């Protein structure tokens, strides 16, 4: 991956020629201790609404969150969405697609993670369609224990994939990534034929950067850390400022 110190700020792209793909947590919303407390700031929502109009709809949020959570956090906007790292998608026409999973396997996973987190103060379970997240942000000293527990669960069935994120370990069923979601959107109107841009902050965004890079698009990492992205913005406020600059171009 690229060295963290050398990436420039992204070029200000034209809203009419670009397909915008944005991650949510750490990109449009500041990271906070409790996932349910995360918010998209009003000025960011306003910038997104204007960008949706300026791009004629070529703006999608691509997130690890569920579609239900994304709708709540982005209200009153109605955007194309990819949730649970590409497992579920809401397309521009409102049509929702979900990958199929073994619901019994998922239910067992959720039960096991809830059982584990309920025995340790501060650990959280976030159950989603197709995935369950084990959050340890309030107990960072338990990272190794949480990782070992998650690995034990994943060893039970090869369909379970571990996706480490920011103070979270997700146990996901299936192999879809944010890259798959972006590639799929890029085959559809109004995204097709535009230059893709993806902005994200986490290791799970790297699959999106790879797909965008393969399409000669613009990949932007938010914050520090090694990455396959070609550009960098420092934080969530800089992402909103970047969108505002695009709107002025
Ligand atoms: O792909 P994203 O939109 O960035 O979503 C990734 C995960 O974000 C959420 O967890 C992260 O943000 C929380 C709120 O700031 C924070 O408390 C947690 O430690 C982070 O890992 C969300 O809860 C997950 O479902 C997403 O997969």
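Q: What amino acid sequence fits the structure above?
A:
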């Amino acid at each position: 991956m690229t060295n963290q110190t050398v990436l420039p700020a992204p070029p200000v792209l034209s809203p009419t020629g670009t397909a915008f793909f944005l991650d949510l947590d750490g990109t449009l919303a500041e990271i906070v201790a409790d996932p349910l407390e995360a918010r998209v700031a009003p000025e960011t929502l306003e910038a997104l609404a204007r960008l949706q109009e300026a791009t004629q709809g070529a703006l999608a949020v691509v997130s690890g969150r569920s579609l239900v959570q994304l709708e709540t956090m982005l209200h009153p906007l109605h955007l194309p969405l990819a949730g649970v790292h590409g497992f579920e998608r809401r397309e521009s026409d409102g049509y929702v697609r979900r990958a199929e999973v073994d619901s019994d396997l998922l239910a067992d996973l959720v039960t096991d993670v809830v059982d584990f987190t309920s025995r340790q103060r501060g650990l959280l379970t976030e159950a989603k369609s197709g995935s369950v997240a084990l959050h340890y942000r309030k107990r960072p000293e338990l990272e190794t224990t949480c990782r070992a527990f998650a690995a034990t669960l994943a060893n039970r069935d090869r369909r379970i994939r571990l996706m480490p994120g920011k103070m979270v370990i997700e146990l996901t069923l299936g192999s879809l990534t944010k890259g798959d979601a972006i590639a799929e959107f890029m085959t559809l109107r109004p995204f097709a034929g535009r230059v893709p841009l993806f902005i994200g902050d986490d290791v799970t965004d790297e699959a999106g950067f790879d797909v965008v890079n393969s399409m000669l698009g613009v990949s932007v990492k938010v914050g520090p850390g090694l990455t396959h992205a070609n550009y960098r913005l420092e934080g969530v406020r800089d992402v909103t400022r970047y969108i505002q600059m695009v709107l002025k171009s």
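Q: And what stands out in the fold?
A: Residues 223 and 235 are 6 Å apart (CA to CA).
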